[in-house]
C-alpha cells in the first residue's frame, strides 16, 4: 500500500492575483501528484481578477482577514490563553522582528493573530505542513502558525524584495525554524546563504518557478513586415527600469525608425513614462497596452519579435519564461537569476543593468539580425525553458521535500 501523502496548507498574503499565476500553476501541479492542498490568503483581490482560472482559485481560497477584527482578536487571545508558552515565544519573535524593521509592532501583532487563525485551522483540517510564498509577511504568518501549533513550515523566496531588506525580514531566523526554504534560482540561493547560518545551508533548495508545457503548443510565426517589434511586460515601478527602456528605445529609434515597442502593464510610474514618450516624440512608435490578463499578455508577446526586460532588480521573471516558450528571443539585463536562463548569443542578448547605451545597442543588433537568426534564437529559447522550467518537474521536487518533512 502506498504511503499517504501529507496534507499541505499554502499561505500567500494576497491571492490569487493576476501577477501570481505561477503560484496557482504550482499548487495545481502539486495537486496533480495527489496532494490535498488548502489555500490560505490574508486577503483577496477579486476586483482585479478576469482570468477564469484565477476566479475559480478565488472561490477555493480561505481569506483570513475576512474574519474581521473580532476574529483576529479572538484567535490572538485564544492562543495566549490555551498555549501561553508557545505564545510568548511567538511574541518575542514579533518584538524582535518589529525592532529589526520588518514592520511596526502593532502590525506584527496582526501577523501573529493571522498566524493563530492559520494554526487553529491547520489543526482542524489535519494539515501536516505549511508552505508560504515570499519570505515577507506570508512567511511570518507561517512561522507564527508553526510556533503556535507545531505544524512544520517551509517557504519560497523570489526576490528582489526579500534581498532588499533581508535583516528586516528576518530571513535567517525564518530559515532556521523552517524545514526547508526554496530559492527560485542559484542566485537566490546564494543570497539566502548570506543570511542563513552555515548549518542551515542544506535547507536551502533550488525549486524553479515553472510553466505548463502542454499549454505551449507550436509557437506562432514571427510577425511580418519591415518593423521589428519589441514587447516589455511588467509593473511600471522603479525596479523594472521602464524609464530607462524609453530612453534606450529613443536612442535606437533615431538610428532605426522601423523599431516598434509595446508596453504591457501599469503602475505608479505611468505618468512619468507617458511624459518620456511625449518628450521623445515616440507616440507613433510606442504602444501602451495597459494591464492584461494571461491571454492578453500572450497575445502581445506573440505579436512581437522579441521581449525586452530592462530591470534593475528581479528574481527570475516568469514572463521571460513565457516569452521563451513562445519562441521569442530575449533582451534583458545581467541581474539575479536571468543569466541562468538566457545565454548571450543563444537565447538572446544580455546587457549591464542601468546602461541605456548598451540596451539601445542590443535593440539595434537585434534589428540588424536576419529572420533566420531570430527564429533560431527563439527556437533555442523555447527548448531551454521547456527543459528547465516544467512546472510538473518543480512540483515533483516540492513533493519530495514535503514528504520528507512528514517522515
UniProtKB/TrEMBL annotation:
It comes from Paracoccus aminophilus JCM 7686. It is an enzyme of class 2 (transferase). Signal peptide: none annotated. This is Glycosyl transferase. Pfam families: Glyco_trans_1_4 (PF13692). The keyword Glycosyltransferase applies. Its EC number is 2.4.1.198. InterPro entries: Glycosyltransferase_grp1. GO terms for molecular function: phosphatidylinositol N-acetylglucosaminyltransferase activity. Keywords: Glycosyltransferase, Transferase. It comes from the Bacteria.
